[in-house]
Amino acid sequence: MKLSLVALLVFSFLSLSFMTLKDVNDADELYARINELNYKQFARAPGFEERTLAIQHNEGDQDMYVDIYMNEVLEKVLEANDPIEQWPVGSLFVKEAYRDEEFMHILASEKLEDGWVFMQWRTDGVAEFAGKPQVCLNCHMKGDDMVRAFRFPQYQKSK
Ligand code: HEC
Q1: Which atom of ligand 1 is least distant from the CA of 119?
Q2: What is the mean pLDDT of the chain?
Q3: Are the C-beta atoms of 83 and 154 separated by less than 8 Å?
Q4: Quick one: pLDDT band at residue 109, thresholds 50, 70, 90?
Q5: Most informative mutation of 23, 147, 148, 150 for ligand 1 (most atoms within 8 A of CB)
Q6: N or C: which terminal CB in the chain sees fewer CB atoms within 10 Å?
Q7: Is residue 34 pLDDT above 60, yes or no?
Q8: Minimal-distance CA residue to ligand 1 atom 6
Q9: 110-144 in b/e burial notation, b at 16+ Cβ within 10 A?
């Protein structure tokens, strides 16, 4: 009984937070890069002009508040407002998640040549998720090309 509980805990730990060395390196690289880029100077995502109650961060979480920033690649494509079916390579989001006033996590998603990667860090920069974690994909697959905060420009017309 006890042993199976331990096994279950170990299994859930591994399946939730398993990262390869490459994932951790990629997470470290992106964390350094978003800070060098000073992501708080990025434009805020439409609909998230200020800290906003999250639509849904994690099933277990209630009352998470988010700041969502997007880089100039996304800014330009929204400005152009042409119908698209994919976000451009180079698109980058950074999201800060708060429980009430408490800063909990930093998250990011970036569109690379071979698709989106998803990262999550503790507030001290230690990676919690990186790469293509199933937990992130499960929810983000429901968005327009993996983006949940907003739809494609003119999405009704492009569908
Ligand atoms: C339970 C569903 C769910 C899960 C799981 C989830 N997300 Fe999200 N995510 C959302 C929703 C909904 C939004 C829209 C903004 C908001 O309400 O936070 C979002 C927004 C984001 C954004 C801003 C860009 C965008 O797509 O709108 C980033 C970055 C992000 N999530 C990263 C992650 C990462 C990294 C993970 C995995 C560690 C993850 N998310 C897991 C639902 C989820």
Answers
A1: 35
A2: 89
A3: yes
A4: very high
A5: 148
A6: N
A7: yes
A8: 136
A9: bbeeeebbbbbbeeeeebbbbbebeebeebbeebb
Distance (Å) of CA 20 to CA 33, 43, 51, 155? 20, 32, 33, 36
d(Cα 140, Cα 147) in Å, to the nearest integer?
6
Cα-trace Rg, the chain: 17
Q: Quick check: CB of 87 below 6 Å from ligand 1?
A: no
Question: Once rounded to an integer, what is the mean pLDDT over residues 8-34?
Answer: 80
Distance of alpha carbon 87 from alpha carbon 115, whole angstroms: 10
pLDDT, average across residues 132-154 = 96
Q: What is the pLDDT of residue 108?
A: 98
- Quick check: CB of 111 below 6 Å from ligand 1? no
b/e map of 11-41 (b: 16 or more CB within 10 Å)? eeeeeeeebeeebeebbbebbeebeeeebee
For the record, the structure tokens of 150 come out as 């907003």
Q: How far is the CA of 5 from the centre of ligand 1 (A)?
A: 30
